[in-house]
Write a structure and sequence with these properties.
Elements: H1 2-28, E1 45-51, E2 57-66, E3 71-80, E4 87-89, E5 96-100, E6 106-115, E7 118-127, E8 134-135, E9 146-149, E10 155-161, E11 190-196, E12 201-204, E13 211-217, E14 223-229, E15 241-246, E16 252-254, E17 263-267, E18 273-278, E19 290-295, E20 301-303, E21 313-317, E22 323-328, E23 335-340, E24 346-348, E25 355-361, E26 367-374, E27 377-385, E28 394-395, H2 401-406, E29 412-418, E30 424-430, E31 441-447, H3 461-468, E32 472-477, H4 486-489, H5 499-513, E33 517-527, H6 529-540, E34 546-550, H7 556-559, H8 565-572, H9 582-585, E35 599-604, H10 613-624, E36 629-634, H11 644-663
Parallel strand pairs: 31-32, 31-33, 33-34, 34-35, 35-36
Antiparallel strand pairs: 1-2, 2-3, 3-4, 5-6, 6-7, 7-8, 9-10, 10-11, 11-12, 13-14, 14-15, 15-16, 17-18, 18-19, 19-20, 21-22, 22-23, 23-24, 25-26, 26-27, 27-28, 29-30, 30-32
């Protein structure tokens, strides 16, 4: 009995010690917190991975937002692809547009310099083991442009602007709109030049009145294929054609003849054909875009990807020319693919529910650099191998370890529902951290840009800010979005504000019926087309308690001359303001007297995509009819905000607005 008592004491003591140790470890673990507005300025955005031809090195960028000097700081870093998560800043003196030398020992890039009072972008070269770059050009005002290195590294093909505009008013500061080289603003014709690295001489190759969008050197370096149109107007993209330029004589031969824009031409390895992107060739159509092959000698074309889904980005050939490799995806995902040239079979190279955006490929196409992220995973750079389908393979960066260590992140999942016509719609549902399925949460609906954007399962600091505050969020991928099939992308033809509006509202209904949220705490936000559709939704229902809208169009008729009206006329509303009443009927300004939702508006003063008077007019209308509204103008900003201080103001105001009008929580932010 005595021994048993002793053993019992020992067991009890051991149990107490174990519990104390476990409790100590729990106490030592930091409490995870929510994302704050200030965290955006601690966050490092990595991107633009460029792998070396031999697959041993990868360049990538770091972008930081600084409140101190109200600037974006972009630096270029270098790492080995073995993936020891160690890297170093490479271009210490700044620079961009990096191009690997064929031997993978050095990198060419462009850097802004000032000499004799003239600022220009000059060519530099830096070895992978070096810390100092060597300047390889002294072009002065002739510097800049888009540079492509020949396969033998003897010269660069350059697309650059002419030094003076063409047409009426060229010798003054006035702009004759859509005349000469001008569009709605002053533009210049662009031409091809050759820069010889050995002699450091710049030679003009073409001298035409055209606007070159892109070009690609032939494998033998004797020709270039050029994508160009004869003007700089916003609404004439259908005039774009492909041309073959002889680099010795400067002779130009038109390769395609149709009424549709061809994009991003790429030579085949044998130099006999060119691959390009187009939706169709007989007319300018809205769609994801197929890959086409055109025979350089005969001009005969072939659709390589009929009936495909998703989009193709930056296609490159395999060395033997039998395959194409490209960025692609489906729905809310992104992944690289291999396309068989003979059969058209498309094979995904990565299986993922997130976004694996390929940046570049090694010379043999066996290795590729990409950026992976998903709604709960910040972006990092990875290196993948053909034949390995994991979405996170060889990790190169760990850009934001503090997010993993400190932040409680909301989970993201794909949800689906049926719209009023039976069409299946998807969305990304972001839940608060450690959310309880039984608890109803306030809901914010995010409406995508476009038409034609959609939502991708990518990391969003703003969404995680809302998540940490307890909001459920539905990023609705409405009809008209890309990355599905063309039927879905064209499902809003001549019906903006119709089917896509119902897609949003049925999504809200689905979240209510599934006990995710309740009808008394709904909000919406959107930017660009998201704000256009959001503003119109507010005129059709009063169910939303708050809204934030940025860079909107409130009146389609007054947008006709100020924006790219071809898409609205050809695909989205049809006709024009004088022939179709829909331009007025589907404008939020027409029905602004019906809006009862407190609405926060944002717009950059220099936005030339959706002009800022649209937000001003909508704001004035809301105030006229007694609706709570606030309008914030951002000086020196375009369609998307770039200045860190403006971004902080926008995010802070958005959050305060939602808290005040959805949940009744007042903050230190001054609200109307």
């Amino acid at each position: 009995m005595q021994q048993s008592h002793v053993n019992g004491l020992r067991t009890t003591s051991l149990l107490i010690a174990t519990l104390l140790a476990f409790s100590s470890r729990l106490c030592a673990q930091p409490t995870r917190r929510a994302v704050t507005v200030e965290d955006r300025f601690r966050f490092v955005e990595v991107g633009s991975p460029v792998i070396s031809p031999d697959g041993r090195w990868v360049l990538f960028t770091h972008t930081r937002l600084s409140l101190a000097d109200n600037a974006r700081h972009v630096t270029t870093w270098l790492a080995r692809t073995e993936g020891d998560v160690s890297s170093r800043e490479f271009l210490n003196g700044g620079g961009g547009s990096p191009t690997w030398a064929p031997d993978s020992r050095s990198v060419f890039f462009l850097r802004a310099v000032t000499s004799a009072g003239v600022r220009s972008r000059e060519l530099f070269q830096q070895g992978v083991a070096d810390t100092i770059a060597v300047q390889r050009s002294q072009l002065g005002r002739a510097g800049g442009g888009q540079w492509q290195l020949s396969t033998d590294a003897s010269f660069f093909l350059i697309i650059r602007d002419e030094e003076t505009p063409s047409g009426p008013g060229a010798d003054s500061d006035v702009v004759f709109v859509d005349e000469g080289s001008n569009g709605q603003v002053r533009y210049y014709w662009t031409n091809l030049w050759r820069y010889d690295l050995g002699t450091q001489t710049l030679v003009r190759l073409t001298n035409r009145e055209w606007s070159i969008n892109s070009a690609d050197l032939s494998p033998d370096g004797r020709s270039a294929v050029v994508e160009a149109q004869p003007d700089n107007q916003r609404n004439t993209g259908w005039k774009t054609e492909l041309f073959i330029v002889d680099l010795e004589s400067g002779a130009v031969r038109q390769l395609t003849h149709n009424n549709a824009p061809e994009r991003n031409p790429r030579w085949s390895p044998n130099g006999k054909s060119v691959v390009f992107s187009a939706v169709r060739l007989d007319r300018w159509e809205n769609g994801n875009g197929d890959l086409w092959e055109v025979d350089v000698a005969t001009g005969k074309t072939k659709n390589l990807t009929p009936g495909h889904t998703g989009r193709f980005v930056q296609p490159v050939f395999s060395p033997d020319g039998t395959s194409l490799f490209a960025g692609s995806g489906y729905g809310t995902t992104r992944f690289p693919v291999r396309i068989d040239m003979a059969s058209g079979v498309i094979t995904p190279l990565i299986e993922t529910k997130g976004a694996a955006g390929v940046g570049s490929w090694s010379r043999d196409r066996r290795t590729f650099a990409y950026r992976y992220q998903d709604g709960a995973t910040p972006p990092d750079i990875y290196v993948g191998m053909a034949g390995v389908n994991a979405d996170r393979q060889q990790r190169i960066t760990d850009a934001n370890p503090w997010v993993r260590d400190e932040i409680a992140l909301g989970a993201v999942q794909v949800v689906r529902w049926r719209s009023t016509d039976g069409m299946q719609i998807e969305g990304l549902l972001t839940l608060p951290p450690s959310d309880s399925a039984a608890r109803l949460r306030p809901l914010i609906v995010h409406i995508p840009c476009g038409p034609g954007c959609g939502w991708v399962n990518e990391f969003s600091l703003k969404n995680q800010m809302y998540s940490g505050l307890g909001y459920v969020q539905l990023s609705a991928v409405v009809r008209g979005s890309s990355n599905y099939d063309d039927r879905f992308m064209q499902a809003n033809t001549f019906d903006l504000g119709g089917g896509d509006l119902r897609d949003v509202l049925t999504g809200v209904d689905a979240m209510i019926s599934r006990k995710i949220t309740h009808p008394d705490s709904l909000a919406l936000d959107g930017w660009s087309y998201g704000a256009i559709l959001g503003g119109y939704i507010l005129t059709q229902t009063t169910r939303f308690k708050a809204a934030s809208l940025g860079a909107m169009v409130s009146d389609w008729a007054t947008d006709y001359g100020t924006s790219a009206y071809y898409s609205t006329s050809r695909w989205f509303l049809g006709g024009n303001p004088w022939t179709s009443p829909k331009w007025r009927e589907r404008s939020s300004l027409t029905h602004a007297d019906r809006v009862r939702t407190p609405t926060l508006l944002h717009h950059g003063d220099n936005d030339d995509t959706d002009l800022s008077f649209h937000s001003m007019n909508y704001f004035a209308a809301l105030r006229t009819f007694g609706t709570v509204a606030r309008y914030i103008r951002y000086p020196d900003e375009g369609h998307d905000l770039q200045q860190p201080r403006h971004i902080k103001i926008r995010d802070s105001q958005d959050i305060a607005w939602m808290q005040r009008f959805v949940r009744g929580i007042k903050s230190s932010q001054s609200l109307p």
